[in-house]
Design brief:
six-stranded antiparallel sheet; 24 strands; alpha+beta; 607 residues; 15 helices
Length: 607
């Protein structure tokens, strides 16, 4: 056997036997080491993607036998070297993280510095949750093969933009003990950023500098397809790679969704199966302890990558590799999916571009909040793994134990969502110059708006919030707001210079509606961007309001009847002198007319 063949064989053996190696950084006798199920044997054609150990362009992950992931320094050095060696590769530092690290962007193209807008463009990000890092190492292998190993034809009709590490600060907070439910690599990054923000909950509010930079890439490149690469949590199953998008019954981009379902799914599955992988649909367990109860695919809010992409009419694929499969197998599956996606865009990208254009012209009522549906929405084919159950002394409950053996194929119920709040968008929204953070977010998302350079008085529909409540604990660095009611009223509002008018008849009209309708599950109101409206700053003393209230009762029989009804129905109110007087104060002309008034105006059609 030739020496290079021996090297190749040794690497292939390493890939297929990762079960004994993936947690090498955690000693086998370490009592804190997470116990994972055994790994079924696996071999696939994609193992041939691993280069020989003697190859001067072997990636750091391949050099480890696909058991370790490249560090940030190794990643940057490798990609810079690749760019220096190939005119097809360009590396940019496009933003800085809160800890001062340069975020990396790789552009792979035959177009030079100016990318041909007629070509489809694939934008891929890895490491949004930086412990889930398979995509970084797969992308480095694929870029190497495009630049130097004969796969440059993938760029004949497509441009490829790659962010190897999105959550860069979290990536460098690496440990063998970061993800106990994941099989490799030997050391993994942290889920959240240095500011403790989960980037895959930040797409709408865009608080993180990293997310603001990513929104800038969306506006700059307007990708034909956007891929967000993850590794799953939860139950065991036979699939090693799952992927999906917003379900058809929830989508705000129906033409794009049809392309996904009729073109992309079949081609991606065929490519993966041909390479020896087991692809499956994006799925969640309805109950992690009892997977036999069924699966779940809700309407994903727009705080998530593929929910945001759907809202923005930007085709978005969420990839979830299976955490219990070895790191090497996951990396190879990701490579195959990326390569197949480039091929599909080359052959069918024009149809996807047409679908994007159609969805961006659509108008009509918008569902801005969803709720769980009690009954299954449909059934789904599923390839499960065998499990048994035991009673845990620690939890005192029945727990699942995975046996690492395939179970028979099954048809299981799939649970989901149903509409909760639907609105007809106004012709436009008006946002005052005083709400600078809101205008900033609109601009970062790329929403079209008109800024006024002089005060303007407009008749608008406005919303009065009733009984707002703040969450007891923060969510992603913000205290979310929920309200019991929203009452509409017509008003003449004067907006100062610097205020903006946001039309809804625009490509990002659905996104603007979600951002600015206060009832939206991911609206800026819900995320706490309008705290001032919750605060009342003027008061009235008891010695003033008490005689005023007595006089109001004497002269207004209707008000008196309403007050007596309130006393009868609300004993706590009846026993609280301050609450009783506050009830009258709210009905005087001295009361703050802007208290609980949502400050965004709605310009109705025909106004």
């Amino acid at each position: 056997m030739k020496t290079d063949q021996r090297f190749l064989l040794s690497l292939l053996v390493a890939v297929s036997t990762l079960a004994s190696a993936t947690m090498a950084a955690a000693p086998a006798n370490d009592p804190d080491r997470a116990p994972l199920p055994p790994v079924p044997a696996w071999h696939g054609k994609s193992e041939k993607l691993v280069v020989k150990a003697s190859d001067p362009w072997i990636t750091p992950a391949e050099k480890s036998g696909l058991t370790a992931t490249a560090s940030y320094a190794e990643t940057a050095a490798y990609l810079d070297r690749l760019a220096a060696a190939s005119p097809l590769i360009r590396v940019e530092r496009f933003a800085k993280t809160p800890q001062g690290r340069d975020m990396l962007l790789v552009v792979a193209s035959k177009d030079g510095a100016t990318l041909d807008p007629a070509k489809p463009l694939l934008l891929v990000q890895a490491g949004i949750h930086s412990g889930e890092i398979d995509g970084k190492d797969a992308g480095m292998m694929l870029l190497r093969d495009i630049a130097l190993r004969g796969k440059d034809g993938l760029l004949d009709r497509v441009n490829f933009v790659f962010v190897p590490i999105f959550n860069l600060d979290g990536h460098e907070r690496s440990s063998a003990y970061n993800r106990p439910n994941q099989r490799g690599p030997v050391s993994q990054g942290w889920r959240t950023t240095a500011q403790n923000i989960n980037l895959n909950r930040d797409y709408i509010k865009a608080d993180a500098p990293e997310m603001q930079a990513m929104l800038g890439l969306f506006n700059r490149f307007d990708p034909t397809l956007y891929m967000d690469l993850h590794v799953s949590d939860g139950l065991d199953f036979q699939y090693d790679i799952t992927f999906g998008w917003q379900e058809p019954q929830y989508t705000k981009s129906p033409a794009i969704n049809r392309w996904f379902e009729t073109v992309y799914r079949g081609q991606a599955n065929a490519g993966l199966k041909g390479a020896g992988h087991v692809p499956g649909p994006l799925i969640l367990a309805a109950d992690d302890r009892h997977p036999e109860k069924g699966l779940m695919l809700p309407a994903f809010p727009s705080r998530f990558s593929h929910g945001y992409g759907d809202l923005r009419h930007m085709p978005a694929v969420l990839v979830e590799n299976h955490s219990l499969k070895p790191f090497g197998r996951r990396v190879l599956g990701t490579y195959v999916l990326l390569e197949q996606t480039l091929k599909t865009l080359a052959s069918d990208g024009a149809a996807l571009k047409a679908a994007i254009a159609a969805d961006r012209k659509a108008t009509g009522p918008e569902v801005i909040a969803w709720k769980s549906k009690a009954d299954p929405v449909r059934t789904i084919d599923f390839l499960p793994m065998q499990a048994d159950y035991y009673t845990s002394p620690a939890s005192g409950a029945e727990e699942v134990r995975w046996l690492a053996k395939p179970a028979p194929a099954a048809v299981v119920p799939l649970y989901g969502s149903e509409p909760d709040v639907t609105v007809t968008p106004p012709a436009a929204y008006w946002v005052s110059a005083v709400d600078r953070d809101v205008i900033d977010r609109l601009r970062r998302h790329g929403v079209q708006m008109e800024s006024i350079d002089a005060p303007r008085t407009v008749e608008v529909d406005m919303i009065r919030v009733a009984d707002p409540k703040l969450d007891a604990t923060p969510t992603e660095g913000r205290v979310m707001v929920h309200a019991a009611g929203f009452a509409h009223e017509r008003r003449q509002e004067t907006y100062p210079a610097g205020s903006v008018r946001v039309p809804t008849n625009q490509p990002l009209g659905a996104l603007a509606t979600m951002l600015l309708e206060p009832q939206g599950e991911d609206s800026l109101f819900t995320w706490g961007f309008f705290p001032a409206l919750l605060q009342r700053t003027e008061y009235i003393e008891g010695y003033v309001i008490a005689p005023m209230a007595d006089a109001m009762l004497d002269r207004d029989p209707t008000l008196k009847a309403a007050f007596e009804k309130k006393l009868a129905e609300d004993p706590a109110f009846a026993a609280d002198p301050q609450a009783r007087l506050a009830w009258f104060y709210a009905r005087t002309r001295y009361y703050d007319a802007r208290y609980l008034l949502y400050p965004v105006g709605r310009e109705l059609a025909g106004d």
